[in-house]
Amino acid sequence: MSSILYPGSFDPVTNGHLDVAFRAARIFDKVIIAVAVNSEKKPLFSFDERIELLKHACRDHKNIEITSFQGLLVNAVNEFKTDAVLRGLRAVSDFEYEFQMALMNRQLNDKCETIFLMPSPEYSYVSSRLIKEIAFCGGDISEFVPDFVTGAIKAKREKGSVL
């Protein structure tokens, strides 16, 4: 059984994330989407909220599992017994960082392979950071995220949550 680990902060999950995950689910027997802690980011949604949003988004995909992890990605690869790490590449600007991370992960664990998928063209410019900025400035994000994510962000905005 082939499996792949798709790590990320998913704050919030976007249609681009889902496009990559759903396409990977056609290739691999199992896709494990793992919400990670990123100390460089201040999340809008809590761990539990992000996991629930992902579970809702992936509810029709039986071979996608939602979980979380802390610490090194290479340790999560071992913990979840996956064959590789899945990373999305939106643009050439993503490549340098992702390439460096893939090489470092392989140096830390020579069994840690990384597979890159590009999102469909209509999602190639979508990022969680931009989604939050647009939403908190009152813009329409409905074409970039699932409806329930739009609602969750609107609720955060109405409560006065900040980026």
Explain what you see.
By secondary structure, the protein is α/β, with parallel strands linked by helices. The chain contains 6 helices and 5 strands; from the N terminus they run βαβαβαβαβαα. A 5-stranded parallel β-sheet has the order 3-2-1-4-5, with helices on both faces. Strand 4 (84-88), helix 4 (92-108) and strand 5 (114-117) form a beta-alpha-beta unit.
Write down the secondary-structure element order.
EHEHEHEHEHH
Please give the share of residues in helix.
Answer: 40-55%
Q: Average pLDDT, to the nearest integer?
A: 92
* Beta strand %: 15-25%
Apparent shape? globular
The number of helical segments is 6
**Unreliable residue runs:** none
Helix/strand class:
alpha/beta
Widest beta sheet: strand line-up: 3-2-1-4-5
End-to-end CA span: 40 Å
Radius of gyration: 15 Å
- Number of β-strand runs: 5
The main sheet comes to: 5 strands, parallel
